[in-house]
């Protein structure tokens, strides 16, 4: 089965502007060399009318699909009535409504007594503010991060990111961060925590007392590495015992990707600081939040500021998303059921072939290829068949799927059939 119906279409291509004007730093348009035009739900259409089923999902920014009708209407209504769009962090009706709804629908029912900070509108900015706050609260410099972590491209966020190519881009030493093995880093041979606990306790261990630990519950960019609930619980206990702050970076796995609103809910842990971005606006509009325990709120006014903190159109769609999807557990239950469907089909694809294994939680699922080059070849074959999926992992050896959570079961099944064909095509 192929999704693209018109067989008479020419090969997709990019206009010259992309090579002659845009910087070499561009990336996604290289793997998907066509001009995207319209998008609705889980489908994107290019300028020639080719349709693509989107299992990339804006890298996690499109959990409710492209141009979600409920969110779009709220946004249109806001814009057509000349409501204020840009207001830095002044008080606005849109902001009041967001704060109230976020508290009533998300924080209060989960008994999370967090203050809400609006950093600049990117995930990296939420991470920067989390690290700054942890350092300010504790008076300590060093941060513990994990192997294969991804936290963003600014210097502080890069310092706690694993990928050596991205780190090299900094051009200066990235300091005050110490990587520890993520869950299952040693394939279960060594209990990963021993190392961390040992060096913390050992006066000869050479580890400065850390301000905080920053962790993803599932490493998205790092290759869909899933931490077990027990591992996260042990990490929380270790932080509590030694008075180290626990930061969960939920930029990609939050907003329902793994089922519950926060990805750490399943493990029953309560981080001291949480970062959210990507799908928090619900519409693909830039927005980020840093959440932290009330008693950690030691900021002085304006100490971490920025021009685009509090983008009102993003507040409007964010509030609408919370009202539409998070008033009860229906949406998260559906996500878990769809995640199981994805996982079952992907386990089958892996079981039929050598050198492929399935991994993931909720609606973030991946296939790891022992031959790393195959993962890229599969994504290329998938694109040719009308399916968008990207690779992740240190060697780009994992095909990572992040379909919008609103994707129908029929589309999920159809997309996974295309993936199956793409693997066969890549294996040749
Ligand atoms: C994407 C991502 C970031 C960075 O977000 P940007 O908006 O790209 O700055 C940080 N942490 C995690 C876990 C992410 O997936």
Task: List the keywords.
428 residues; alpha/beta; Aspartate Aminotransferase, domain 2; 2 domains; seven-stranded mixed beta sheet; 14 helices; 36% helix; binds pyridoxal-5'-phosphate; PyrdxlP-dep_Trfase; pyridoxal phosphate; aminotransferase; transferase; diaminobutyrate-pyruvate transaminase activity
CATH topology type of the largest domain: Aspartate Aminotransferase, domain 2
Name the CATH superfamily assignment of the largest domain.
Type I PLP-dependent aspartate aminotransferase-like (Major domain)
Continuous helix count = 14
Which ligands appear in the coordinates? pyridoxal-5'-phosphate
Major sheet strand order: 4-12-11-10-7-5-6
The helicity comes to: 25-40%
Label the overall shape.
globular
Most strands sheet: 7 strands, mixed
If you average the pLDDT, what whole number results?
Answer: 95
User: What is the terminal separation in angstroms?
Assistant: 17 Å
Strands, total number: 17
Low-confidence stretches: none
Strand content: 15-25%
Number of domains: 2
Q: Evaluate the radius of gyration.
A: 22 Å
Write up this protein.
The protein is an alpha/beta fold. The chain has two domains: 17-67 and 330-427, Aspartate Aminotransferase, domain 1; 71-325, Aspartate Aminotransferase, domain 2, CATH 3.40.640.10. It contains 14 helices and 17 strands. The chain has helices at 17-20, 28-31, 57-60, 69-80, 93-107, 123-138, 155-159, 164-168, 192-201, 229-241, 312-325, 330-351, 372-384, 409-427; strands at residues 36-40, 43-46, 51-54, 114-117, 143-146, 177-180, 212-215, 218-219, 225-226, 245-249, 273-276, 289-293, 356-361, 364-369, 387-388, 390-392, 398-401. It has a seven-stranded mixed β-sheet with strand order 4-12-11-10-7-5-6. Strand 1 (36-40) and strand 2 (43-46) form a beta hairpin. Helix 5 (93-107) runs parallel beside helix 11 (312-325) and helix 13 crosses helix 14 (409-427). The protein is globular and about 65 Å long. Bound molecules: pyridoxal-5'-phosphate. The site of pyridoxal-5'-phosphate has 14 residues, from helix 6.
């Amino acid at each position: 089965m192929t999704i693209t119906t018109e067989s008479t279409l020419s090969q997709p291509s990019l206009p010259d502007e992309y090579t002659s004007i845009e910087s070499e730093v561009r990336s996604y348009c290289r793997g998907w060399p066509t001009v995207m035009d319209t998008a609705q739900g889980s489908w994107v259409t290019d300028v020639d009318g080719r349709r693509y089923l989107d299992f990339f999902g804006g890298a996690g920014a499109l959990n409710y699909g492209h141009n979600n009708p409920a969110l779009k209407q709220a946004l249109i209504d806001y814009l057509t009535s000349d409501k204020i769009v840009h207001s830095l962090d002044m008080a606005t009706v849109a902001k009041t409504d967001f704060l109230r709804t976020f508290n009533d629908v998300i924080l209060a029912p989960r008994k999370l007594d967090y203050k809400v900070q609006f950093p600049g509108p990117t995930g990296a900015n939420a991470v920067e503010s989390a690290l700054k706050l942890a350092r300010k609260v504790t008076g300590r410099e060093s941060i513990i991060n994990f192997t294969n972590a991804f936290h963003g491209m600014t210097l502080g966020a890069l310092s706690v990111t694993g990928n050596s190519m991205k780190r090299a881009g900094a051009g200066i030493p990235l300091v005050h961060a110490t990587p520890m093995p993520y869950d299952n880093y040693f394939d279960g041979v060594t209990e990963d925590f021993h190392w961390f606990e040992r060096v913390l306790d050992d006066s000869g261990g050479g580890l400065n007392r850390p301000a905080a630990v920053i962790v993803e519950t599932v490493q998205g960019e790092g290759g869909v590495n899933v931490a077990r609930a027990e591992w996260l619980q042990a990490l929380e206990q270790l932080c509590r015992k030694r008075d180290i702050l626990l930061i969960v970076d939920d930029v990609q796995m939050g907003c329902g990707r793994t089922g519950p609103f926060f990805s750490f809910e399943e493990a029953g842990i309560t981080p001291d600081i949480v970062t959210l971005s990507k799908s928090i606006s619900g519409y693909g509009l830039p927005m980020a939040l840093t959440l932290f325990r009330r008693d950690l709120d030691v900021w002085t006014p304006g100490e971490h500021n920025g021009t685009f903190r509090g983008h009102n159109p993003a507040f409007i769609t964010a509030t609408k998303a919370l009202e539409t999807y998070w008033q009860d557990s229906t949406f998260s239950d559906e996500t878990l059921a769809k995640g199981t469907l994805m996982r079952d089909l992907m386990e089958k694809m892996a079981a039929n072939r050598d050198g492929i294994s399935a991994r993931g939680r909720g609606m973030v699922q991946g296939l790891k290829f022992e031959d790393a080059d195959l993962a890229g070849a599969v994504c290329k074959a998938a694109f040719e068949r009308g399916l968008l999926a990207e690779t992740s992992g240190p060697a780009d050896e994992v095909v990572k799927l992040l379909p919008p959570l609103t994707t129908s079961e029929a589309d999920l099944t159809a997309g996974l059939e295309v993936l199956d064909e793409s693997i066969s095509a890549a294996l040749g």
